Amino acid sequence: MEILETLNEALLKKTSAKKSCRMDPEPYQHMAYSFSVAEHSVAVLSDMQLNRSYLFNSKTGTELGLEFGGNPAVIDSIWEEEILKKIHPDDKMRKYIHELKFFRLLETVKPEERSDFSVLSLIRMQDRNGNPRLVRHRMFYFYSTHNLKLRFALCLYNLVPDPPGNRMPVFSIINTVKGETVSEDTMIDNRILSKREIEVLKLIGDGCTSKEIAAVLCISINTVSRHRQNILEKLQVKNSVEAFQGMIRK
Question: What is the C-alpha end-to-end distance of the chain, expressed in Å?
Fold first, then answer.
């Protein structure tokens, strides 16, 4: 997946031993554990320097059918596959795009102000019975005081009541100090792209060729080409890469 590779490269930038971060992960692990107890959150603390994650389960995790095999479970990756595979495919792509947008925003913010911001998203996930549920996802970044690079990311997942009208997913960057919405993802929705165009764009983001997209969607290659052209025209970009970059900057 093109967007995931870009995000992975941004988050896992290597540093020399002399410039490595010496922050103790234990206090951040305690923070994640506290959220899992106090809010029944599924909490994931990812260590960017070690490419490692600590997964804390809860009663919410039980409702979602998550089993980590430990509390915390420790995995050698910043990507918690057991959780990610539960997320609706469309929302997963948008989640990756929004996380890259968040990272790039914080890279432009003064180091002392980075902790003011967080991500708030509403995404669709499958529960233990295979039913779609609306989940509140929050994400916080913690930067190193030693080399000013991103060290930890804390993700929290909680079930929320389905609102009237079955509200679609929302992806927002919040200034939690000022109580302001800095950015909200409204670009990919039915007001701009059709449902089919969104499906095509998602498959483009997954790295599929036009032939592969045609096979997945059971349409002709000419129809795929027409959808791709419509996407470029609607988003006013030259190619699919710019389409994703446009979403990240919005």
Answer: 21
**Rounded CA separation 176/158 (Å):** 18
Query: Cis peptide before 89, with omega less than 30 degrees from 0?
Result: no
Residue pLDDT, tens place only, 165-177: 545 557 888 898 8
221-235 vs 210-217: helix crossing angle, rounded to 10: 110
Token pair for 203: 């498959």
Contact of 36 with 58, CB cutoff 8 Å = yes
CA dist 63 and 128 (Å) reads: 6
As a whole number of angstroms, the distance between CA 86 and CA 160 comes to 16
Q: Using H for helix, E for strand and C for coil, what is the string for 179-227?
A: CEEEEECCCCCCCCCCHHHHHHHHHHHCCCCHHHHHHHHCCCHHHHHHH
Q: What is the rounded CA–CA span in Å between residue 141 and residue 26? A: 16
Side chain identity at 214, as an amino acid letter? Answer: A
Dihedral sign, CA of 37, 38, 43, 45? Answer: negative
Q: What is the pLDDT of residues 60-106, one digit of tens each?
A: 999 999 998 888 999 999 999 999 999 988 788 878 878 888 998 89
Q: Distance between CA atoms of 148 and 145, rounded to whole angstroms?
A: 6
